[in-house]
Write a structure and sequence with these properties.
Blueprint (H helix, E strand, L loop, with lengths): L10 H23 L8 H29 L12 H29 L4 E3 L3 E3 L7 H37 L17
The structure holds protoporphyrin IX containing FE (HEM) (2 copies).
The site of one protoporphyrin IX containing FE has 21 residues, from helix 1, helix 2, helix 3 and helix 4.
């Protein structure tokens, strides 16, 4: 089913979840791979372009995902120990960072006077006036604060999923998996 129900996520929500998972993991892998190459080499530029393109894709998709999420019912919560509360705070922060991480990078590119290419297919032009000092500060925020915060949150989020599966033994982890059909069918 396309839509969410009280007990399961529909395929649209699941597709958003897992497509964005690969885009975000890809962005982290690409930025990490670039370190293997010297500044100014074609390889380094290639990984950097991949990083920007994947990050930009996250920025485009998160709005659609958020729109879908906010207009749908969500499956019921499970778990004690304030798990549901922690999970919803965590999910809200994940959304916030899925916006702020690429947004900060876009801002740093704008202020750095650099257009951002999406897989070489089109470019986001520079609209703002160049301010390299500010661009440098925002780069630090992107690279040293926001992206690491997203990383940590993802690890906690995965730990939560595993907790549901192993400790609580409920269906929360399974119901986000692509081919799980649920008991109500
Ligand atoms: C979900 C999206 C994104 C994630 C998870 C992410 C993650 C990261 C991380 C972890 C770093 C730090 C790397 C390090 O310290 O070695 C970084 C740096 C960087 N990111 Fe992103 N990023 C994202 C989106 C973007 C976008 C959309 C752009 C381009 C507009 C971008 C451009 C850059 C640049 C240029 C750097 C290098 C800064 C430097 O010179 O050290 N990122 N990113
Ligand atoms: C880039 C990494 C990830 C991000 C940004 C992310 C984000 C989210 C968000 C925002 C939700 C709330 C539901 C929604 O609005 O779609 C969610 C739900 C969920 N995620 Fe992730 N997720 C990531 C990776 C993972 C991974 C690797 C797992 C596997 C352990 C996982 C398991 C789940 C589960 C089981 C739910 C459903 C919770 C429920 O049914 O109440 N996520 N995720």
């Amino acid at each position: 089913m396309m839509k969410n129900t009280d007990s399961r996520w529909g395929w649209v929500a699941k597709s958003f979840h897992w497509i964005m998972f690969f885009l975000i993991v890809g962005a982290f892998v690409a930025i990490d791979q670039r370190e293997l190459y010297e500044r100014g080499t074609a390889e380094r530029d290639w990984w950097m372009t991949l990083h920007r393109s994947l990050g930009l894709s996250v920025f485009f998709l998160v709005w659609l995902r958020l729109g879908w999420r906010l207009t749908q019912t969500t499956p019921q919560n499970f778990g004690g120990y304030g798990m549901a509360k922690m999970a919803s705070i965590g999910h809200a922060l994940l959304y916030l960072l899925m916006i702020l991480v690429p947004l900060s990078a876009l801002l740093m590119s704008q202020l750095g006077g650099r257009p951002v290419s999406w897989f070489g297919l089109f470019e986001i032009p520079v609209w703002l006036e160049t301010n390299r000092e500010l661009a440098g500060q925002i780069k630090d925020i992107h690279a040293d604060i926001l992206a690491p915060a997203l990383f940590v949150l993802i690890l906690l989020h995965i730990a939560g999923g595993i907790w549901h599966h192993v400790v609580d033994r409920d269906d929360v982890l399974k119901r986000m998996l692509p081919f799980w059909r649920g008991k109500d069918l």
